[in-house]
Amino acid sequence: MEKIIEEDKQGQSLVLEQVKGNTRKLFIESYGCAMNFADSEVVASIMANEGYNTTQILEEADLVLVNTCSIRDKAELTVRKRLEKYNAVKRINPKMKVGVLGCMAERLKSQFLEEEKIVDLVVGPDAYKDLPNLLKEVEEGRDAINVILSKDETYGDISPVRLQSNGVSAYVSITRGCDNMCTFCVVPFTRGRERSREPQSIMEEITDLWSKGFKEVTLLGQNVDSYLWYGGGLKKDFDKASDMQKATAVKFDQLLEMAAVAFPKMRIRFSTSNPQDMHESVLYSIAKHPNICKHIHLPVQSGSDRILTEMNRLHSREEYFALIDKIRAIIPNCSISQDMIAGFPTETESDHQDTLSLMSYVQYNFGYMYAYSERPGTLAGRKTEDDVPEATKMRRLQEIVDLQQQHSWSRSSDFIGQTVEVLVERTSKKSQEQFSGRNSQSITVVFPREDYKIGDFVLAKINSCTSGTLIGEAIGYSEMN
Question: Boundaries of each Radical SAM core domain copy (predicted)?
Fold first, then answer.
């Protein structure tokens, strides 16, 4: 594997991994969650073994794959527009093959292949190893599809090809699937039941990244706090495991400890957590190790107990507050971010006010906020009328966004006058004379470049801020270098 340095459309340097001698070209785009981007790197590795190197030029591709998201209607509309673009290019280059990967592939397989005939192959999240066989079927003139969900596939035996990497930070997948049947979410149906990846393979992947100069990894899963390795199998079957398997099982806090101790000069992040599954042991691990980042993404979705019940969120408002209080007590400098849905079916103005009051209690550093979008196949989509008017949804969403903006300003202002450690990740989007990176709390920091370089850990004194960015000056290297 050799590295090629290219620039993206914003002039940022990208490190592309290429296999010498490969002659075919793969163009791959990813949408949705970080897990999709990590999956695309697995796909690129599988296809590298079939003679494909990745390209950023659509027109030169032999194979075009789009890794899709079904969590919101807007994401599906975006993918459909991209498919129109791919097929316009394909009319000029008929030898080019087009495929759909991921969650949307599983949900809309028949429409894509049989009704609309806009793709050549459809591949679900657990079937990427079957891509070479599916391509052979396409080359023989047949439509190809595999969306079968697996009980044990984790891709732990595949070394991902890093796509459009900054050479500094990387994703490492540790779990797949989800057992939490939130009524608004398609993930359990498109990604299957929850299973964890062998710890040794995770540590080997981090070791490989460290040897290549990476300085930060993010441990990924739909619900990382449910990580549980007991020798393989679904999490739900752990009760059937042998006494030896139970005694030697590895949980998420132990995995965090293993990574932090083995790689003391590498930052460790993780995402995403589910409030009902986060335990104090994880909080103490974060507090104990300076290289485990002090940021927790803790989706709540609503501040109303009634709506939380309708969503099948297995925690109450008060239980969420209790967890927030524990985080603040054990990790005082921890940032917390949220996911929030406005206008879930049957949501009243009182429910909405409960959400705003929850936000005021927590005062998140930042968040991801959306109006409810009905997803076919989910329990809410099947059994609950989407009865909140669109105008009401958008008004409530704006109120949530406005309040979050206030809290983000307040939280960012707290850093003024402090010195923070920043991992330099890229040139600032606004100025070639500045670098950009994140501190431990996952807040973006910008400062003059001087003689520093991408990949350095730098101490920066914060002089001012916006709601989402800290602005400072570098005062030296940190001990992490």
Answer: 164-411
The total domain count for the chain is 3
CA 199 to chain centre: 20
* Sole residue written with tokens 């806090």: 253
Residue range 348-365: mean pLDDT, rounded:
98
Q: Partners of 28 in the beta sheet?
A: 65
Q: For residues 115 and 193, state if they share a domain.
A: no
**pLDDT tens for residues 143-191?**
899 999 999 999 999 999 998 789 999 999 999 999 999 999 988 988 9
DSSP 274: -
Q: What share of the chain is helix, strand, coil (3-state, %, to 5)?
A: 35, 25, 35
Asked, for residue 106, whether it belongs to a domain, the answer is: yes
Q: Please indicate if the annotation marks 69 as binding a ligand.
A: yes
| 186 shares a domain with 125 | no
Q: Are 355 and 302 in contact (CB under 8 A)?
A: yes
185 marked as part of a ligand binding site: yes
Cα–Cα distance for residue pair 268/124, rounded to 1 Å: 29
Q: Residue 178, annotated ligand binder?
A: yes
Task: Identify the CATH number of the domain in which residue 317 sits.
Answer: 3.80.30.20
Which range, of 83-92, 262-271, 403-412, averages the lowest pLDDT? 83-92
Q: What is the pLDDT of residues 381-391, one digit of tens each?
A: 888 999 999 99
Question: If you average pLDDT over every residue of the chain, what do you get?
Answer: 93
Does residue 10 have a pLDDT over 60? no
User: Quick check: 236 pLDDT over 90?
Assistant: yes
Contacts of 244 (CB under 8 A, 6+ apart): none
CB atoms within 10 A of CB 479: 10
Task: Let me know whether 188 and 139 are in one domain.
Answer: no
What radius of gyration, in Å, describes the C-alpha atoms of the chain? 23
pTM: 0.93
- Residues 407-423: pLDDT tens digits? 999 999 999 999 999 99
Q: Which residue shows structure tokens 């705003």?
A: 356
Same domain for 121 and 28: yes
Q: Is 465 annotated as a binding residue?
A: no
State which residues form the domain around 431: 419-477
User: Hey, what amino acid is at 423?
Assistant: L
- Phi–psi pair at 322, nearest 5 degrees: -65, -40
Whether pLDDT at 16 is above 70? no
The amino acid sitting at 386 is D
- According to the annotation, is 334 in a ligand binding site? no
Burial class (CB in 10 A: 0-12, 13-18, 19+), 386: middle
- Helical pair 317-330 and 349-362, crossing angle rounded to 10 deg: 10
Q: State whether 182 and 278 are in the same domain.
A: yes
